[in-house]
Amino acid sequence: MRNKISLLASVFILLVIFNGWAATTAIDSRNEGPIKITSSISAVIKHFARKIPPPKMARKETVAANIDIRFPELSCQTGVSVAVNAINEAIQSRLLKVLDGKHFETVEQLMEAFGSDYEKSTKATPEMPGAWLLKFAATISYHDEDLFCLKILQSVFTGGAHPASHLTYLVFSIKTGELYSLTNLIHKNSLAKLTKVAENHFRQIRNMKPEETYKQAGYWFENGQFSLNRNFLISKDGMSFCFNQSEIAPYSKGIIEFIVPWSDLKTIGDPKGPVGKFLKE
Predict the structure, then answer these.
(1) pLDDT band at 26 (very low <50, low <70, confident <90, very high)
(2) CA 38 to chain CA centroid, nearest Å
(3) Going by DSSP bridges, is the β-strand pair 133-143/65-76 parallel, antiparallel, or unpaired?
(4) pLDDT tens readout for residues 44-65
(5) What dotted CATH number matches 23-180?
(6) The domain 183-279 belongs to what CATH superfamily?
């Protein structure tokens, strides 16, 4: 009888240990799709998620850490594609470097390291609230036979006043896998004209008065002059631009996005390039 009780107790302890281990190490991994990109290229959306509960000795108020990672993975149905490989590598490179100063070989390594750091931190500073977050969301915003466009939102919180969040626009050639620069898509020597047109739309969406300076409105463009960064995106509606938090204004103003419609870019966009089809509409 005593041996039976001991055996049951041992099984119970093992179950508790296993369940606790599973809760902290299990990774929810699944794919969504496929999505047709071109006649020969498709993509699946890979999704990795994990919730890491606080260590057992942590305070009841300590909040669990969460990891949520989504990104497209392209494949070619007609064989090896240099473009597909280049785009996949570009996405993976950004993802695996999402934690500043660290580089990992796989998504699993990235997630394990983040979870381990969270557990160490909650033990070393139990007074902190926890609530660590790692988010990487790469979204296909537009694609055709020439272009493959991504929005990548990455957000990391490991304590402090607020998360470190960043929105990146990427415009790839689906034929070569190379990233387009802004000057690849517009007429030579037309950047100044594009900047002026974009400034009009920026001031409008930010509800700035005609006589209002950028300093008065709370923006810190160099020398008080509007300028474009190179964080741009292409869609059927126009050319979009994004200024991230603390890039041109205080963090509290958030991420600033605005779009310049193709109707205002007919003399600026290169009609012989990949945006030419939009200029005809």
Answers:
(1) low
(2) 23
(3) parallel
(4) 999 999 999 988 777 778 899 9
(5) 3.30.565.40
(6) Heat-shock cognate protein, ATPase (3.90.640.20)
